[in-house]
Every structure is written in structure tokens, then in C-alpha cells.
Write a structure and sequence with these properties.
homodimer; 120 residues; mainly alpha; Arc Repressor Mutant, subunit A; 3-stranded antiparallel sheet; 5 helices; 3 strands; elongated; disordered N terminus; DNA-binding
Amino acid sequence: MIERTETSETPATGCCSPSLAPRIDAATAHALSDDLGILAHPIRLQILDLLAQHNGQVCVCDLEAALPVKQPTVSHHLRLLRAAGMIDCERRGLWAYYFVRRPALEALRTRLLAQFDALR
Amino acid sequence: MIERTETSETPATGCCSPSLAPRIDAATAHALSDDLGILAHPIRLQILDLLAQHNGQVCVCDLEAALPVKQPTVSHHLRLLRAAGMIDCERRGLWAYYFVRRPALEALRTRLLAQFDALR
DNA sequence: CGCCTATATTGACATTCTTCGATATAGCTG
DNA sequence: CAGCTATATCGAAGAATGTCAATATAGGCG
């Protein structure tokens, strides 16, 4: 590492800017990346899409029929989406009807937009 | 699976809607989740933030100094971001100056928004 | 050329993710 | 209750990801 004083204005004897720091703190970055990680799976995106389309009327076997994975896998992804607060379900008799939690998705959308705007 | 006719209007002897299909096709979902997967890492989010802040003036050792990971890890994340088309770099002498590719990020933002709006 | 420095790549290792068969749970129906 | 069905959970196995030490590459300087 090249020697340089923090107070100096010199653009560099070498390269490095005087201790550059991210505006996003690690905790925020972590929280956001967790949510992005939930979205970052094709099956989960398709589940969200299906749920949004047929709000409150989609049971697990519908999803299983519409997606190229088996039932335990569908349940697994539903659990992740639920743990992330993006969806929820209501049991009616034998069936579990899943639906998107619009306010949560709206909040995530807002958070994402804010992040993108910060990259402006 | 419960027997049912596609043409019937009956809300179900059981649960399932007549063959529900995602509006997002698998290819689109896959492409989008790939990009989301790139964003879904705290270090990468912070890198994007740092690059956006100091456009065109950030070399790898700056990033290494600002982030809690070692140089090979920084290079690794830079490579992923670059492969995803989100950033690029210019070599000047010994140093590699990285910068965000604003048009690509803008396109991603648009794509993401469209997706969120589809969940409307 | 020989040395030094910034960055990239390689290889190994640990961790996490994804999937699915098998099984458990829960609620209906007879 | 017995049997059936929808969903959840468990456990195992493979794939993908993240990290870093070690090493390679490449460009500057004396």
C-alpha cells in the first residue's frame, strides 16, 4: 500500500482515494441482499406471479401443476417466501390458499427503487 | 389429483384451478433471477454504491480498503458484476478503474419495475 | 533487465442452496 | 375409527457460492 496522508489533497502518489466509504452500511446492504436473494430464483418469481394473478385462490397443488418441480420443493419455496413476509396463506379445510402480501411487496419495491436511485 | 373437466365452471370438487399458468415464462424468470442473484450480495451492493459515488475513479485497492473482504474476493465480485454487464473497467497503468454501466443498471431497473408492476 | 506493485486467476475448503424421496401431520369423509 | 388427500417436514445428496492463501500476470521504475 502506498503511503499517503489523509489530509493531503494530492490525487495520489499511487491510486487510492482517501478512505472511501460506502453510503450503504453493511446492515442495510445485508438486509436488502437477503430480500433480493429471495426474489432471485425463477421458481419463486413464478410463484409470486401466479399468486398475484389469482389472488387468494391458489393452493399448493395448483402451483405444483404449474411448475416444473415436485410438491416438497414447492412447499419449500413457499416457506421461504412466507418467512420473508412476501406471501401468506390461509388454510381452508385440507387446502392451503396462498396469496401475496401486497404491502410487503410494495415496501420492498420502494426500498429497491431507493437503492437504484442512490446509484443514480 | 382430483378429477375435473377443463370446460366445467365448477369452482372445484377439490381445490385446483383449471391449469393455471405463470405469465412469466421460465426463460424470463431465469434471466431476471440471474440478475437479481448478482445484486443479492451485500458486498456487491456496496461495490455498486461505491462505484456510483465516485464514478470512474475507483480502483481495486480503494474497494479493498473500504470493504471487509480481501483483494481476491473483491476481484471475484468485480468479475461477476462485470460479467453481468453492470460495471466495466478501464486500465490506466497499473491500476484498474471501475465504474458502473448506467445504461445497464437503468435497463435492469426498468425490468424490475415492470415485474413488480405485474405483481400489482 | 530485475524488482516492485496492482490486479487477476487458481485451487482448496466451507457454507449455503436446491431438490426430492420418504414420512409426518392434519383435516375430510364414510 | 379407518382410510384418503393436501400439505409440511425431514434427511440426504448434489450443485452452487463465497472466501482466501498462493501464485500468475502485467505494467511501471530504476
